[in-house]
């Protein structure tokens, strides 16, 4: 592997999201031309889908939600992923979505969990692809966070088989979201568990053909901008995770298309330090994190 070689991955453009201050300002001002420009920029940078998240306004302003979808689809032909907080908002999104404008591609419902399955009630009305969050399971009727690889992979398998058996959903329409945790406070091996879950899911013949994804922006939260070798620490960490995950079937990223995701060479400083971090727990993990940015 080398730095000039790009990953063969699907990028779901993440920038239409009020978590980005500049995008929040667009929504606050109902600046649809600005949202359109952001959609075009992501499409031109190589996104395969665009995620649409207008925040809490999706609950109170279905008219604006519909207008935003129409505005985005008027300037790009990419399929959309809808990240909204209720079944009612998802229904608005699916009704507004112009599948023909997207070349016949299905939209994505982002997301369901074992505990929050209600959006699947819309599948009979209009088929869609779905993102399944494998970060939580239902145990004795209660939602519980998954930390171990076995729990993550087990949740993913139960959900995928249920989608296939109850709804006839093909594996290609199922995307398993494996949460990628910030390493700055990961003393419990959460990153290690996620990577091990990728291997378990990728090697399970019952799950062949589905997709695995994650949002990578969390991994470098609260870390300084530069690694000890002077490189872009957060971006290198994202690429380090992908370097270890992509060979086992992790093939989709919720991310910023123009960041340029690419595998790292074996002797890359950040990759080596990240591998060392993955072997640690407790205070040793915190010490390993500091090695990323302190010479």
What does this protein structure show overall?
The protein has helices at 21-28, 32-44, 57-60, 62-73, 87-96, 149-167, 190-202, 233-245, 269-278, 282-293; strands at 10-13, 49-52, 80-82, 108-112, 129-133, 136-139, 142-145, 174-177, 211-215, 250-255. The longest helix has 19 residues, at 149-167. It contains ten helices and ten strands. The chain is globular and about 55 Å long. It has a single domain (10-293), classed as TIM Barrel (Alpha-Beta Barrel), CATH 3.20.20. The model has no long low-confidence stretch (mean pLDDT 96). 42% of the residues are buried. Helix 4 runs parallel beside helix 5 (87-96), helix 6 (149-167) crosses helix 7 (190-202) and helix 9 (269-278) packs antiparallel against helix 10. An eight-stranded parallel barrel has the order 1-2-3-4-5-8-9-10. It has 295 residues and is α/β, with parallel strands linked by helices. The two termini are 25 Å apart.
How many structural domains does the protein architecture include? 1
Extended strand count: 10
Strand line-up across the major sheet: 1-2-3-4-5-8-9-10
How would you name the CATH homologous superfamily? Dihydropteroate synthase-like
Structural class: alpha/beta
Rg from alpha-carbon coordinates: 19 Å
Name the helicity range: 25-40%
- Give the overall average pLDDT: 96
Continuous helix count:
10
CATH architecture: Alpha-Beta Barrel
Low-confidence stretches: none
CATH class: Alpha Beta
Beta-strand proportion: 5-15%
Major sheet description: 8 strands, parallel, barrel
The CATH topology label is TIM Barrel
Shape: globular
Terminal CA distance = 25 Å
């Amino acid at each position: 592997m080398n730095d000039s070689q790009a990953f063969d991955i699907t990028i779901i453009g993440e920038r239409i999201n009020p978590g980005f201050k500049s995008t929040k300002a667009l929504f606050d001002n109902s600046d649809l031309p600005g949202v359109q420009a952001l959609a075009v920029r992501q499409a031109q940078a190589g996104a395969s889908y665009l995620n649409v998240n207008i925040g809490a306004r999706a609950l109170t302003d279905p008219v604006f939600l519909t207008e935003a979808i129409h505005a985005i689809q008027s300037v790009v032909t990419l399929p959309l992923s809808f990240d909204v907080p209720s079944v009612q908002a998802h229904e608005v999104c699916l009704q507004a979505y112009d599948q023909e404008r997207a070349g016949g591609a299905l939209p994505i419902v982002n997301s369901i969990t074992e505990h929050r399955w209600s959006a699947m009630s819309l599948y009979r009305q209009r088929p869609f692809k779905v993102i399944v969050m494998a970060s939580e399971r239902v145990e004795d009727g209660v939602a519980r966070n998954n930390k171990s690889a076995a729990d993550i992979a087990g949740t993913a398998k139960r959900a995928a088989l249920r989608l296939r058996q109850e709804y006839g959903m093909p594996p290609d329409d199922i995307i398993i979201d494996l949460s990628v945790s910030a390493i700055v406070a990961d003393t419990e091996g959460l990153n290690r568990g996620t990577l091990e879950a990728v291997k378990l899911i990728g090697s399970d013949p019952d799950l062949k053909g589905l997709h695995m994804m994650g949002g990578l922006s969390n991994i470098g939260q609260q870390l300084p901008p530069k690694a000890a070798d002077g490189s872009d620490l957060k971006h290198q960490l994202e690429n380090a995770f992908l370097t270890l995950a992509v060979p086992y079937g992790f093939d989709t990223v919720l991310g910023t298309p123009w960041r340029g995701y690419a595998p790292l060479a074996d002797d890359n400083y950040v990759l080596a330090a990240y591998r060392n971090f993955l072997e640690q727990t407790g205070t040793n993990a915190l010490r390993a994190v500091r090695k990323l940015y302190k010479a």
